[in-house]
């Protein structure tokens, strides 16, 4: 059992309440704060927060520099930077609390800042690999669809390619969210695990027509053949049955998955089965961003495409999903004529 300081625990509970109710943070974000604070307490041997001294920040930074992750590797610069920011956020809040205003100043809190070089390196974006639309379609064609579960997986892959939906949303959608007549999915933030609980209406992107055809056939099968209702899962978990005295999982249930791990598994396996890089589902959003760039659409259509990805600001799509490699950058600049 790990050590703890009772006074510290009470303060952390108050801070968690503040993050949850005043800042609206979700449990996943709060868990990261908890983990960061435990790291700091381990470094100080669980001394009371009220005995804070700026020397503790130096020792904490040194400890993070030596710390290793679960794979036995040193913590990345981004992890170290994020941990420092989370702990700094706590002490910034603490400096304004009754009983701490004389022992902790906002200037003291600034000692948690990372050095500029490491902070800049931590936020440097690495090149993100994503499949070309040709590679994605090749993976789709290579997916088996002999069993009901294989058909579900192939429909799931097709759905990701025509919506760019995130794994949390894909795993929690129900049939009531699908409108095949008008061609869109309603990602209701109240019942679908969207990013930050945002509600998004996504019209099916005009990618390869086989994607939409296969997905449509899957939804029709669930509604007509399996008699699924509006509240049943779009991509259900397997149903456990007993056949000849043994448990089998050979058909879908009506229940959604608890998380998006199955979506990740299906997407990566589709590529590895055809000897391609195991791309993750989120990379399909990059593929859709590249398709936007390749089509050279009018500005209004580009904005609609961006909104379809769930972005309120077109700049988000441009900065995050319209990658320009170093080679492309050089070719484009060299291709410009002098004035």
From TrEMBL:
<dbReference type="GO" id="GO:0006310">
    <property type="term" value="P:DNA recombination"/>
</dbReference>
<dbReference type="InterPro" id="IPR050090">
    <property type="entry name" value="Tyrosine_recombinase_XerCD"/>
</dbReference>
<dbReference type="GO" id="GO:0003677">
    <property type="term" value="F:DNA binding"/>
</dbReference>
<keyword id="KW-0238">DNA-binding</keyword>
<dbReference type="Pfam" id="PF00589">
    <property type="entry name" value="Phage_integrase"/>
</dbReference>
<keyword id="KW-0229">DNA integration</keyword>
<dbReference type="InterPro" id="IPR011010">
    <property type="entry name" value="DNA_brk_join_enz"/>
</dbReference>
<protein>
    <submittedName>
        <fullName>Tyrosine recombinase XerC</fullName>
    </submittedName>
</protein>
<dbReference type="GO" id="GO:0015074">
    <property type="term" value="P:DNA integration"/>
</dbReference>
<dbReference type="InterPro" id="IPR002104">
    <property type="entry name" value="Integrase_catalytic"/>
</dbReference>
<comment type="similarity">
    <text>Belongs to the 'phage' integrase family.</text>
</comment>
<feature type="domain" description="Tyr recombinase">
    <location>
        <begin position="125"/>
        <end position="334"/>
    </location>
</feature>
<keyword id="KW-0233">DNA recombination</keyword>
<feature type="coiled-coil region">
    <location>
        <begin position="1"/>
        <end position="28"/>
    </location>
</feature>
<keyword id="KW-0175">Coiled coil</keyword>
<dbReference type="InterPro" id="IPR013762">
    <property type="entry name" value="Integrase-like_cat_sf"/>
</dbReference>
